[in-house]
Design a protein that fits this description.
318 residues, alpha+beta, Diaminopimelate Epimerase, Chain A, domain 1, 2 domains, 18-stranded mixed sheet
Length: 318
C-alpha cells in the first residue's frame, strides 16, 4: 500500500509547484464506473489540465473521471468532479459514493449522525455509508440522498427560445441526426435527457444520437443522455452517455434520472433496480416533491502515486 507521509503532504501543499510533484491517489469503481480520487486540500493545482492525463487509459491511470477532496465551509468536505476531457461536472451519484469511501476509510472527515455531508457543485448531499461506522470495517456501499428532481428549464439549463413555449421538456421531440427523438429532461444537480424505448438499449444507436443531443443549442451547458427500457414495475435496463466522457458502464445520476423518468410517467413503482452494463444500482423516488435515493457499491481497486511533470500545475488559486 502506498500512502503519503506528512513531509510529502506538506510539500504538495506548498506554493512551489512549478516543478514536478507527486500526487497520492486511489482508483475506485461503482458498478464499473471508475474514478481516480485524491486529496487536493489546499493544493493549488490545475485539475482541468491534470484530469485528462491522469484518467487516460493508455498513458494514465485509466478512469471515467477525477474526484478531488477539498475543504468546505458548508459541509464536512467538498467534492469536485472532473470528466476525462477536463470539464468539471456538478455532481456524480457514483462518484460521490467512491469519494465518500476514500474520505471515510482514510479518516479525512467524520460522520454526522451516521452520514457524511458533502458539498458538491450541484448542492449539498448526504451519503449514508455501509457499514454504518468506520469502526465496523471499510465502506463497501452507500445510499445517497440525491435531492428532489427538477424539471424546469432553468434547472437544466435549457434555452427557452428553443423549447417551443414549453416550461418543461416532458416527452419533448427534437430533430436529431435526421430523425425525431423524444426524451424527458430533468436535473439531479446535473442535467439529463432520458429516452424511453420499448426494446433492449444495447440495440439503440446511442453513440450516434447522444452527441447530437448534447451539442444541440437547446442545452448551452450540454447534457447527459440516457436510454432506458422498462422491464417491469421494479426493474429497468439502461445505458448512459455522459458529458465530457462518452458512454460509461454505469452512472449514479444517470440511473436515478432513468428511474425518476419512468416513475414520473407512471411506468414503475417507487423502488426500482436499474441494470447497467457494469452492474445494478438501486433507486427509490416516491414522486414529485420528494427526494430521490440512490444505493450502490463502492469498491477500491488500488492505490498509487501520480507523478505530475514540471509545468503540469498552476500556482494560481482557483
Amino acid at each position: 500500500m502506498v500512502t503519503a507521509d506528512d513531509s510529502v503532504s506538506a510539500s504538495l501543499r506548498s506554493d512551489g509547484l512549478a516543478g514536478a510533484f507527486e500526487l497520492p491517489f486511489a482508483k475506485l469503481h461503482g458498478a464499473g464506473n471508475g474514478y481516480v480520487v485524491l486529496d487536493g486540500r489546499d493544493l493549488n493545482a490545475d485539475w482541468q489540465s491534470i484530469a485528462p492525463r491522469i484518467t487516460d487509459p493508455n498513458f494514465g491511470v485509466g478512469s471515467d473521471g477525477l474526484a478531488v477532496v477539498e475543504s468546505s465551509d458548508a459541509a464536512a468536505v467538498r467534492m469536485r468532479i472532473f470528466n476525462s476531457d477536463g470539464s468539471e461536472a456538478e455532481m456524480s451519484g457514483n462518484g460521490i459514493r467512491l469519494f465518500a469511501k476514500f474520505v471515510l476509510d482514510r479518516g479525512l472527515a467524520s460522520l454526522d449522525e451516521g452520514s457524511l455531508l458533502v458539498e458538491t457543485g450541484g448542492g449539498l448531499r448526504r451519503v449514508f455509508p455501509m457499514p454504518a461506522t468506520p469502526t465496523t470495517g471499510p465502506m463497501t456501499a452507500a445510499s445517497v440522498a440525491m435531492d428532489e428532481p427538477r424539471f424546469e428549464l432553468a434547472a437544466l439549463p435549457a434555452d427557452p427560445r428553443l423549447a417551443g413555449g414549453a416550461d418543461r421538456l416532458i416527452d419533448f421531440e427534437l430533430e436529431v441526426a435526421g430523425q425525431p427523438v423524444v426524451f424527458t429532461a430533468l436535473s439531479l444537480g446535473n442535467p439529463h435527457a432520458v429516452i424511453r424505448i420499448d426494446h433492449d438499449p444495447a440495440d439503440y444507436p446511442l453513440a450516434r444520437i447522444a452527441p447530437e443531443i448534447q451539442a444541440h443549442p437547446l442545452f448551452p451547458q450540454r447534457i447527459n443522455v440516457e436510454v432506458v427500457q422498462v422491464l417491469g414495475r421494479d426493474r429497468l435496463r439502461a445505458r448512459v452517455y455522459e458529458r465530457g466522457e462518452g458512454e460509461t458502464l454505469a452512472s449514479g445520476t444517470g440511473a436515478t434520472a432513468c428511474a425518476v423518468t419512468a416513475r414520473f410517467h407512471q411506468q414503475t413503482d417507487a423502488a426500482v433496480a436499474v441494470e447497467l452494463p457494469g452492474g445494478v444500482l438501486h433507486v427509490e423516488w416516491p414522486g414529485p416533491g420528494e427526494s430521490a435515493w440512490l444505493n450502490g457499491p463502492a469498491v477500491e481497486v488500488f492505490e498509487g502515486i501520480w507523478r505530475e511533470p514540471a509545468g503540469g500545475s498552476s500556482r494560481e488559486h482557483e
